[in-house]
Every structure is written in structure tokens, then in C-alpha cells.
Amino acid sequence: MSQSGQEQPTQYHTEHYRPGAYAADHIRITPTTLADGRQFFYFDDDPAYVSGAKTRELHDPRPLADRFGPGVDTQGNPVAPQAPQMRRDPLTGDWIPMSTARMNRPITAGPGATASGNPLAVRKPGNPYQDGEVPDTDYNVVVFENRFPSMMQVPGLKLSTSYVDGNQLWPVREANGRCEVVCFDPDEHSLPAQLSVKRLRTVVEAWAFRTAELSALEGIEQVFPFENHGQEIGVTLAHPHGQIYSYPFVAPRMEAELKQTQTYHERTGGNLLEDILAAELEAGERIVMRNYSWVAYVPAAARWPLEVHVVPVRDGILTIDQLNDQERWDLAEIYSALLKRGNAFFDKGDGKGMDLPYISAWHQAPVHDERRANYRLNLQFFSLRRDANKVKHLAGSESGMGVWISDTTPELIAARFHEIGPVDIAQA
């Protein structure tokens, strides 16, 4: 039973998200709010919760202040809640969000750890820090708004443009976006590569649900699900999880890709990403995995020492929520295989591989930009590790001028993947 005494819904429906046949019968979405008002969603694939035999804890007992409640300044005067700000770089046109709240986020991994608990883990009564972001003592997958966001939408806030030092060279606006956390599993010691395909299928459904919902928020221009994994990447919480950033602008990388895809379409009438896939399939050498719905390949101009792009076979898919049931299952399957093979890629001499540090970045079509029609959904997976004991540092050429210098070749990357496992991975 929920706090209101009413039975929780078997499926959480909204105006924008519609579950497919599998999700409608096998994944239960239960919404609630945390103590400070942030949205929180349980995604259950456990049959006991899907059937309603068990229900989730919806009450967050922490004494957190309403994040949108009035605050006070240093003189004790009331002040309205403020969104983080973003400033535009006049040299590049990029918007740079600036969030001082992120300085206060807990760090639980690495030598700079500031806390011993894990706020993404399940509730452990008696441990005040572990009584963190998840109200229940167990969960399957959860999604919630980040407590220390880089961007935030404040209800009722009138958006405006001002200027640093009053100079129109430097526009300033509210960073009117949204940041969410996706926890893949309750076991804080597990690795994403160890998750079952069924659990990853639930993660895929969470991505689809949030893509549909976040795309409908006013002011959102791009929805970006991603995953950071490993201390070398800068991960501050050692727990299998990812994030979803909803930008109030088109991100610079996406802007660059849109310029290329649009120019290609105007010149040829074709879709650049579709033609890249066709060319990679024709070449064959850099294809590392495929199943019925997806193809994974090392791009012919790969930047990173380990880089794989994963794309749907079906044309016309712009965002994750447009995937059908078969494509969502096949995505879970190929993503599981990619994570496992990524961990096996570098050999330390014992044949056991390693926990690969990586970034997994979903490139979806922007929400409103008219160039979205000539884009195509794709996942870009990469690691900065270039050997079992070496990482690629972004030095002068890469960081200072954006000119990438690869430490290997795409063909060598693909050849190593071919040593690890077969290209065709579709299960019978």
C-alpha cells in the first residue's frame, strides 16, 4: 500500500511514455518523492513486486529541507531558490554550466574519499549515512533526481539573460536542465558487466522511460543518458550506476555531429549514420559484434585506444524510447557482451582481464532541433586505457587544440575483439 492507503499501480503510465508488451507485464514502475521533493522511481523486474504481492517503501524519513523552499542569505534575509547558472564562451559558442553545489557531493571511492558510506546503496537501519537516497532496504533499478545537480529546473522561475560584468560578450542564463541518477543494481560491490541480461533489460526500459518524460519538459533540448565507470574516469561513487543529463541547449559534440549529418544530407540526400553503418558492414573488418537488432563496430576514425559504436539495424530510430520490445532485449544482450569483452580486452598476464574504466554515451537526436530528422540513435563506448598498466592522457594536442592523436588503429582494436569472442552473438 502507498502512503495514501491506495494500492500502488501495476504500471506507471504517463502522457509521454508507453510501455511495450514486455514492460507492461514484467516491469513495474513505482513513483515517489524523496524528503526534499526530488522525484524518485522504482523499476522492478522481481515478479513479487510486478504482481503487487510486495510493495515498495515510499517514505523517506530524512529531515531534508524542501530544495525549492525559500533560503536565507548571510544577513538572514529570505531569498528565492536559484537554479545553477551557465555562461556562454564567446570564442566557441559553448554554454558552460557552473554548479557550486557539486563541490559538496560525497566521494566514496579512491584516495580522495570523504565518506565511508554509499548513498546509492539500499537503506541500512542504524547507519545514518547509508540511510541515503534509496528509501527501501532492497531494489532492482531506481532513478532519481541528483541531489547535487549541475543543472536544475526551479518551478516558477522566470528565465532571463544577464551578462558578466554587464558586458554582452558574456551572456549568463539559468542552467535550466535536469540531472538524474540511474542505479543498475542494489549490490554496491557488483560491476555492470556482472549484471544479468534481464537486469540490463530493465535498465534499458528506465532509459526509454526517462527519455520520453524528460524530452517533454519545457526548455529541454537534448537528453543524454551516460555511464562513467572506474576511478581513472573520475567516478566518485563506487556503485553500478549511470546518469541522465537533460540539457537546455544542444551539447557541443552533438552540434558538431548535427552539422556533419545535415551537410551530408543536403549534399547527397542520404543519412550519414545509416551510410556509415552500411559502409562498416560492407568493409566487415571492424565489425566486432552483432545480433538481430544491433551492430557494434570500431569506427574507422576511432579516437580512443578502445572505442566501439553500437547502432540499431532498423532505420529511422532517433531516440531510445522509439525502440521496440525486440530491439530493447537485443540491446541488453549486446551491451552485456560489450561490457564483458571490454573487461577481457587488456591482458595483465593472468588471463583474467580487468575492470575496464569506460564511458558509455548515448547520442540521441535533439528534442526540437529541425536537424534531428537526419540524425540516428547511436551508443559511443570508449576507454582511456591503452594497455593493462597505461592510460591515455589528453595532453597538449587533444586538450589544447582538440586534435586527437590515436595510440593504435581501429583495425587493431577490432582484431583484439575478434580474439575475445565471435561476431554473431544472437542467442538461439
UniProtKB/TrEMBL annotation:
Q: Which GO terms describe its molecular function?
A: nucleotidyltransferase activity
* Family as reported in the entry's similarity comment: Belongs to the galactose-1-phosphate uridylyltransferase type 1 family.
The EC category is transferase
Q: Which residues form the Galactose-1-phosphate uridyl transferase C-terminal domain?
A: 258-375
The name under which this protein is listed is: Galactose-1-phosphate uridylyltransferase
**What are the Galactose-1-phosphate uridyl transferase N-terminal domain coordinates in residue numbering?**
83-250
Swiss-Prot/TrEMBL keywords: Carbohydrate metabolism, Galactose metabolism, Metal-binding, Nucleotidyltransferase, Transferase, Zinc
One Pfam family here: GalP_UDP_tr_C
Tell me which cofactor or cofactors this protein depends on.
Zn(2+)
Protein encoded by which gene: galT1
Upper lineage ranks? Bacteria, Bacillati, Actinomycetota, Actinomycetes, Bifidobacteriales
Region annotated Disordered, chain positions: 68-90
> Can you name the source organism?
Bombiscardovia apis
- What is this enzyme's EC? 2.7.7.12
